[in-house]
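Journal club side-thread
Mid-discussion, someone asked how the predicted structure for our own chain would compare to the paper's figures. Pasting it here so we can look after the session.
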Amino acid sequence: MSVSTKKAAAVALVAALGVTTLAACGADDARDAAGKSGAPAPKTVTLVSHDSFNASKEVLAEFTKRTGLTVKVLKSGDAGEAVNKEILTKGSPQGDVFFGVDNTLLSRALDNGIFVPYEAKGLDRVPAAYRLDKEHRVTPVDSGDICVNYDKKYFADKKLAPPVTFDDLVKPAYKDLLVVENPERSSPGLGFLLGTAAKYGDDGWAGYWTKLRANGVKTVDSWELAYNQEFSGSAGGKQAKGDRPLVVSYASSPPVEVLYGEPRPAEAPTGVSTGTCFRQTEFAGLLNGAKNPEGGKALIDFLISKKFQEDMPLQMFVNPVVTDAVLPELFTKHGVVVDKPETMAPEKIAAKRDGWIQQWSSLVVK
């Protein structure tokens, strides 16, 4: 069973629990409004997200305990695909809250008006560096670093040092070893493309990708395919006989392999090339046209609660954004701290992203 399959099997996304007196004000408002209109009070709130969303049963049960609302989760593909679906259904959304739009796609979502403003309770615990939208149409929920991961055993067996930097990846020693995701369809793929643009600049990134293509880079549509099918270092990749020992993933991916290893290894079988990283922040927003907007507001508040934030690292392998959350030992021991990731201003991403993707496609997907 692959890591992603195990993660999916471990999650019960709908908690059927009763209403208690600990309801949050958002749910109270929803019930009051329903009572005045004569309509039945909503019992569910729908969270639309990418396929990698995960939360423990206990934490979702805590939300139900506080609000009386059951969380229904609708997974909608990779992050880019999920955002595009919401754009196509703007005004008649699939749910109440969308989680998983990141800084690489944020301007696309905001420009298309899929969210309505809501300033979450507890937002003052989130550092200003993460709060990229002054109108509060989205709320920061997590951060992480998109980086190349490597298969430790492969490089040990070959007596070859794993790559560390972007420059290393185009060297002949690493020919035909790297698999990346299509930036048009995949959030990690887009993050990696933006990392190369941040590193080499407007005039240099295309030449870098020309070198990567000549060095045998392989492109697939999604992170799931790249990591769990093509990458030789992951549990899923081993079962699928993946033959690429380098993959674009996350700095926090090694703890996944430890947590789900059978038996659990003392050390992670994968490592991180820390000179290939791009900083990513994910957001949640109240969808324009939500059927249960008050329940949606309560859910957004909960996503930045200490309870949810401390659950995230071992569920979605991302970093909390609130200052009072504590990371689990497994995460701190086997994860990697990236001191100097590549970054890019959201305004530049908005101005350049689509053109870069088109140019990337003409260079790499021929």
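Post-session note: Confidence is low (pLDDT under 50) at residues 1-35.
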